[in-house]
Specification:
This protein is of the alpha/beta class. The protein has twelve helices and 20 strands. Strands 1, 10, 11, 14, 15, 16, 17, 18, 19 and 20 form a ten-stranded mixed β-sheet that branches. An eight-stranded parallel barrel has the order 2-3-4-5-6-7-8-9, surrounded by four helices. α11 packs across α12 (about 360-365). About 45% of the residues are buried. The structure holds pyridoxal-5'-phosphate.
């Protein structure tokens, strides 16, 4: 028997599937939607998300490291699994054993794969990562044709795809994405016809803001989980059907206490009550993903109303001001992320308080708490 925690992350499978269908529609029927499930599916749980998306028709997944890809396969996830961050030579065999697809960015990796392919009398398809201006992983466009020539000389290895990544696709009015896309488009014909290599460069921002860049495949991450990469602005700018938040996070009140005016609260007494105050003590701290940078800033929902954190967030505890909320008692539900009554707190709002982005909030909450899946 698993003993439940006070804190619970809920993951809505129906919202996830809604987003998947919406994004596949936006990308267009010629484009295969690849689901980015790195970072344990942005905190939503890679295995459950992978299986749910499989059932919804998704046949392509992306992860950072090979250990994630092996775990996905072992959980029975079907379709293509792309590993984006390369691999150490000792792991090459795993691509063959588990039918995984490496994304490569150096010829040394291709040689290792070739040797393994020859040893097994097998073949492997790879995707090549090109850096068209992100200045992160990848070979430069000028190196591409030479790279492809070297690759084609290696037995057992075939180039199946070409990938790049946009740094500013979340900015709908930036000229950077069209410019980078132009550079990317020039590369594919080098290897032959346009259709020979699967081309993919679009992330969520590009699927939503520059759908013409979707090509053969588009890689959706944050949008699958219900958030716009440009945050609240993107949510407001959306004119069509909206994405739905997949995650919510709730806890409960542990103790209610009344304190006088002028009393210091929590470590360092960084917060001093300015009136007689009723505090609710919550079993929530930075260990649960509630970043310490949210001290005296974050709000949570209690009885359908907003209550602000008072003072420092501790490792496992924090205090919120419930003076103006009638009847708060130990055991009351507290919503940190999501809806309660008519109120709603989104990961974008929390990210705003933290000086971060929704991506980080989802990883923090999702990967540090027990998750419950709701169909
Ligand atoms: C994480 C990632 C994505 C997805 O980005 P989102 O902004 O979350 O859609 C796409 N491609 C690569 C290479 C990534 O690392």
């Amino acid at each position: 028997m698993t003993v439940p925690s006070f804190n619970r992350v809920n993951v809505s499978i129906s919202a996830l599937c809604h987003n998947y269908r919406l994004l596949q529609n936006r990308a267009g029927e010629k484009t295969t939607l690849l689901a980015m499930v790195k970072a344990d599916a942005y905190g939503h749980g890679m295995l459950r998300v992978g299986r749910a998306l499989n059932a919804a028709g998704c046949r392509c997944f992306g992860v950072a490291e090979i250990c994630e890809a092996v775990a996905l396969r072992e959980a029975g996830v079907q379709g293509e699994i792309l590993v984006f961050l390369g691999f150490s030579p000792g792991s090459a065999a795993l691509f063959f054993d588990h039918d995984l697809t490496p994304v490569i960015f150096d010829i040394a990796s291709a040689r290792v794969l070739s040797q393994e392919a020859v040893r097994r009398g097998s073949e492997i398809a790879v995707h090549v990562k090109v850096d068209c201006g992100m200045t992160r992983l990848g070979i430069y466009p000028e190196e591409f044709s030479g790279f492809m020539a070297e690759l084609s000389a290696l037995p057992g290895v075939t180039a199946r795809g070409i990938a790049s990544h946009f740094p500013r696709a979340d900015e709908a009015d930036s000229g950077n994405t069209p410019e980078q896309f132009k550079r990317f488009r020039k590369l594919a014909p080098v290897a032959g016809s346009d259709s020979e290599l699967l081309r993919h460069t679009a992330n969520s921002g590009a699927i939503l803001n520059f759908p013409e860049t979707c090509c053969d495949m588009a890689r959706a991450g944050i949008s699958l989980y219900g958030y716009y990469p440009d945050g609240i602005a993107g949510q407001h700018a959306e004119e069509g059907e909206k994405l739905q938040a997949v995650m919510s996070f709730s806890s409960q009140v542990l103790q209610v206490k009344d304190v006088a005016e002028g009393v210091g609260v929590s470590y360092g007494h960084s917060f001093i009550t300015s009136r007689p105050t009723r505090l609710a003590v919550l079993p929530l701290g930075y260990e649960d993903g509630l970043s310490r940078s949210l001290s005296s800033r974050a709000e949570v929902l209690v009885r359908g109303r907003r209550a602000r954190v008072c003072g420092r967030i501790c490792m496992n505890l924090c205090m919120v001001d419930v003076t103006d909320i009638e009847g708060v008692a130990a055991g009351d539900e507290v919503v940190i992320l999501g809806r309660q009554g008519g109120e709603c707190i989104s990961a974008d709002e929390i990210a705003g308080w933290m000086g971060s982005i929704s991506y980080e909030v989802l990883c923090l909450f999702g990967n540090n708490n027990e998750r419950k899946y709701i169909e």
